Amino acid sequence: MFDLSLLDICLLLLCALMAGLIDSIMGGGGMIQVPALFSFLPGYPPATLMSVNKIASLVGTSGSAFQYAKANKTPWKLVLISCSAAFLASVGGAYLLTQVPNQWLRGALPFFLLALLIFNIRSTAGLVHAPRHQHHKQTGLASLGGALIGFYDGFLGPGAGAFYKLWYARVLGFDFLRSAAPSKFLNVASNLGALCVFLSLGYMNLKLAFLMAIANLIGGQIGSKMAIKHGNVFIRKAFFITVSALILKTFYDAYIH
């Protein structure tokens, strides 16, 4: 399995567990899992490591999504339509990733995240459930967000889960708990879309992906139960911590590393 030592495998699994926990609360678990894979396996094709990350995240996020769906009523029609948009857009983004460099987006991402943090720091979005749109307009906006963020998830990916949740909070007026299940299912859809592209090109290590998926699933179950128990204020704090960490990580990756 990539000639890893037992210690290396254990450390990777610990990173996957922590990624699942963080991702289940607000999103952004990839900022732990992806660097860990690239650090422990520097000589392997990036697409192979990304496919391992996607399948582990897919399993962990699916588990979290169903936890949230059981805890709160989920608008399934809205979710299914917007997930279709996220899946198709992610396929396009992942394919584009195999054709063109994404350094320009890496360079812009930390500044976009900083603007996002400043824009939301004084907002109460996500604390109160007050949907702003109904029926076709709500479905259209949810699908637009699914497509935009899904494309980004396939092309680059860090923080996609947080972006989905923020779209539901800022644009659609959902609170964080009621946006949790839809945003997780959207993340599952875009992970699956990108994964289909990577698998079709032969990039995969199933043994490592299986082990990391189990660890990610365990972390996701722990995190989602914490979020359901402690509510919107807890998730809002997790959002600001996650985005702040993403700003530092993406800036380091783009300009220092």
Automatic annotation (TrEMBL):
It is found in: Cell membrane. InterPro entries: TM_pro_TauE-like, TSUP. Pfam families: TauE. It comes from the Bacteria. The keyword Ribonucleoprotein does not apply. Its main location: membrane. It is a multi-pass membrane protein. Belongs to the 4-toluene sulfonate uptake permease (TSUP) (TC 2.A.102) family. This is Probable membrane transporter protein. It comes from Polynucleobacter sphagniphilus. The lineage of its organism: Bacteria, Pseudomonadati, Pseudomonadota, Betaproteobacteria, Burkholderiales.
